[in-house]
Amino acid sequence: MAKTAKTEQEEPLEKKLWKAADKLRKNMDAAEYKHVALGLIFLKYISDAFEEQYQKLVAQKSEGADPEDKNEYVAEKVFFVPAMARWSYIQGRATQPTIGKDIDDAMDAIEKDNPSLRGVLPKVFAQEKLDKTSLGGLVNLVGSATIGTKEAQSKDILGQVFEYFLGEFALAEGKKGGQFYTPQSVVKLLVEMLEPYEGRVFDPCCGSGGMFVQSEKFINRHQDYYKKKGKAGLSLNPTDRISIYGQESNQTTWRLAKMNLSIRGIDSSNVKWNNEGSFLNDAHKDLKADYIIANPPFNDSDWSGELLRTDARWTFGVPTAGNANFAWMQHFIYHLAPTGKAAIVMHGGAASNKGQVETLIRKNIVSAGLVDCIVALPTQLFSNTTLPVHIWILNRTPKDVRPEILMIDAYNLGTMKESTIRELSSDDISKIADTYHTWKNKSIEYIDEIGFSKAVSFNDIENKSFIISPNRYIERIKKDRIMPFKNDVEPFIEMSIQYTENILSEINQNNLSNQLFKDNFYKSFNKNFDKSLWDKVEVSEVIQCTVSGSWGNEEHKKDNIAVKVIRGTDLPNIPLFNLKKTPTRYLNEGKVEEIKLQQNDIIIELSGGSKDQPTGRCAIVTKELMDYFNMPIICSNFCKIIRLDEEKVNPFWFFFYWNQSYQEGLTTRYENQPSGIKNFQLDEFITSELILLPARPIQDEYAEEMRKLFEIKNKLAFTNYNLTKILDKTFENIYYDFNETNLLSSFS
Length: 748
Fold this sequence. Notes:
The protein is α/β, with parallel strands linked by helices. α2 packs across α6, α2 runs parallel beside α12 (251-262) and α9 (184-194) runs parallel beside α16.
């Protein structure tokens, strides 16, 4: 009987190797172990390539070939591996207690015989904390894979293994991992937008060299370009189409880059290292690059800016000494050729920061016509930050007219690869890149896409004080209705009426239990809302101040008074009178006066959350809550109070806005996890997001009607679910525009 073919897809080699290698890591820090694992993989690669060429030369001895002649290998672009460094010798000693020293000696020997590798290979294998039994196991594991032969190279097996390991080590290291690795899907997007077909490619903060690797892959994927353009010399190695230039200030990261490029046959002679970095010691002072692709450190305050106040690179304004974002931006522009282009990963705040210096520099860069496009990326793409991240596309090609900028909001793209890491798919990358290229191609009609992209005029940008965050310009996509608002919300109203029949004495004043409530409700809310006269303002403009919390003392001390401390876990229960576990603490009376809650305060959860529970939850302080405890109330140090300017905004309007933002996931854009704990960046949110405000009487009218429902909801456990639905759907109906074309046919 014939064997049944296996239908399960075999696990890729890189994943198999990673799982096994990670087990052998034991307690060693990922930051150190990556040099052990990647160094061994590189050693195996060059040994495999050497062995394949060695056997060819052995077969050609009768023709005068010498397998031990270094020149025989140089001619074939193969590293010469001395006998003591060949894999067969290393693996034969894997069980010896001296295996660590043997590998270090092998690395030294290879560097001596191959000048381009001098100072590159890791010599970390003899250190005492590296368990030699585990090291021997890793040698045998890596030895089980063939990764350096011509066939393996043609399939880019080692490249896949090396790149996969870099990504996994970046995840393991968390925030520090972002210093040497940019996620592959982000790099692919940068390269697809930039299209570096040929020329000088520069990355002045090159990490492990991923930008250069993807540039080479881009050329390989687009061979048809050269045929269509009638380019001669199609037999050229794709890497010869571009020349790369790089700089890295971290020596161990630079070594990773050199190895990463060497295994792909990419000339890395112009990838330089010095510990001063690109600002203090520019390794390519005279370079004018055709393409710059970079992911610089975000918001770096330790960049020696005070030493560079008169630097020639600051043609658009002297950057602040406390933040290097616009120093990097001007460094990139300085190094662009007259028609050069750049694709830059940048912290979202650079597009909207209102500081005087940052605003002036941004204005000058935009006014010079250098910004082609801004892309707002989804959260959780990076292991080192979950704060908003943008891509800036810069273009030095002279413009005939005042510049227009393409804004793209890609926030809703990407899929979760793991619980905390998102990845852009090939379709996502194509959607963004194709939109940009369609806009650039004047022979193709570009059309704005609601909720995704918009071409913004210089005048519009000027009117918004040169803030260039895409969310300030892109029209929100209309929501689809499957049934009319009345039909959608009516079941919840009916259920609320039904459940309140037993407690009519508490709700008669609001008419919630009879037809009058329904009629009045529809009269107020079942209509279209003209938003043309509504103001669109930054959230911070309606806030009087923010007040920090405190955890107080467990025991009573001198001058202390008792306080109730509201925690993030209490917020869903405010004011449901289900706060029996809210702790009583003790705090200095003067401090209590400074930070105690007041009626209409908004409490925001800053820290905590869980895998499925984002931070940013809110509650509004009511008189009922104040009366319930009969003592001063403060919030914990993991929350913060927003005290509103009630001349500008009705507190309940603001509360409903914030609650809707949380339900929509907008607040998750402003989370980060520096130590595995979610933190909500309140200041980032309120200075970046906008709130729509009708005239105050209209706010009061709508908010007052909704406030009544809100307070009843909090008194009635039975009606909680139904009234929540009424609130969500009602405010959604007021605040958003809807596409009515997808209504169910039964409601047509």
